[in-house]
Amino acid sequence: MPRLNTSPHTSAARALLAGLLVLAALPVFTARVAAEETTEAIPVVAQPLAELAVYPQFRAPASVFSDNDSRISAEIGARIIEIPVRVGEVVKKGAVLARLERTDFELTLAREETALQALRARLELADYQLSRARALSRKQAVSEELLKQRESELSNLRAQLAGQEVALTQAKRQLEKCTVRAPFEGIISERLAQVGELASPGSALIQIVDNRHLEVSAQLQAQLTQSLPQAMQPELVTSQRRYPLTLRRIVPVFDPRARTREARLRFSADTALPGSTGELVWRSERPHLPAELLSRRDDQLGVFVVDGEQAKFIPLPQAEEGRPAEVSLPTQAPIITLGRFRLQDGDAIRVKP
Questions:
Q1: Residue 148's domain spans which residues?
Q2: CA-CA distances (angstroms) from residue 238 to 29, 105, 241, 268, 272?
Q3: Exposure of 192 in the CB half-sphere (CA atoms within 13 A)
Q4: Residue 132 shares a structural domain with residue 44
Q5: Do residues 273 and 159 share a domain?
Q6: Whether residue 193 sits in one domain with residue 85
C-alpha cells in the first residue's frame, strides 16, 4: 500500500491554498451581508401627534401704562391762589385742578369791552353820517369826495370793530385760563406746585393719570413674536391676581440692544392699577413637539414620521435645541418616538404594535 506524502512543504501549500480561497470568497460574503442589512426593515414605535403634542407656556416681563399720563401746566403767568385737589383723588373731566389770580385779566377784559362799546358807538355815528351823505348826494348837496370819505370811515370802523371783537375774545380766553381744569377723567398722582407760588406759562402744576385707558406693555424676544398673535388667552399675572388681555399690536420696531419687540395689549375685563408690573403669560394654540423627540440630520433639526413603509424626515427650520418645536402636521400624523436614532430619510421601517 502506497504511503501518503505528508511532508511539511505539502501541508503548508495546502494551508496557503485554503486561505486564498477564503479571501476570495470574503468580498462576496460581505456584500451579501450588507445587502441583507440594508434591506432589513428597522423596527420603530410611532404615536399620533395628538398624543405627543404640548402647548408650551411663554412669559415676558410686562407693565401697565396709561394712554394719558399728563403733567398739567399753566398757560399764563399768575400767582396760584388755590389747588383744590389732593393726591389719590379721582377727578372727572373738567374738574378744577388749580385757580390762578384773576384780577389783572378781569381788568384787561373790562378794558376791551369798553373799547368795543366805544367802537360800536362810533360805528353807529359813521353809519348815520354816511346815510345822510348819500341822501344829500342824490340832491347834489354834497360833493362826491365827501361821500367817499364817509364810506371809507365806515369801512375803517367796521374793520376796527372786528379786530376789537377778536381782542375781547382773547381777553376772555386769558381769563378762562386762570382756572386750570382736568382734560380727562383720571387720578391725581402728583402735586407739582404750591399755593402762593408764581406760575409761568408751561410750569407744571398737577400730574394726572388716565385710569380708564390702560394698556399692558411687554418686551418679547424675537422668537416669541410669532406665537403671541395665536395665543389662546394671554394674561397679565401680578402678585395679586391674573388679568385677561387681548393683543392690540406688536410694535413694528426692533430694539437692537435688547433684541426685543414691544407688544401692546388691552384689558378684557378688570384692569390693574397704572404702574403695576408683572408677567405677560400666554399659551400657544399650535401643537409643539417636546425637544427630546427632535432629531438632527444634515445640520437640520426635525422629526421622523411614518410614510408608508419608510421613515420620512420633516425639517423644522424654526426649531431650537432644548426647546419645544412648533409643527404644522395633521394631529393624526404618526411620529416616530423609538428607533429614530438609527434612521435616515427614506429608510425602510417596521412599525411595532
A1: 102-176
A2: 71, 50, 6, 16, 9
A3: 16
A4: no
A5: no
A6: yes
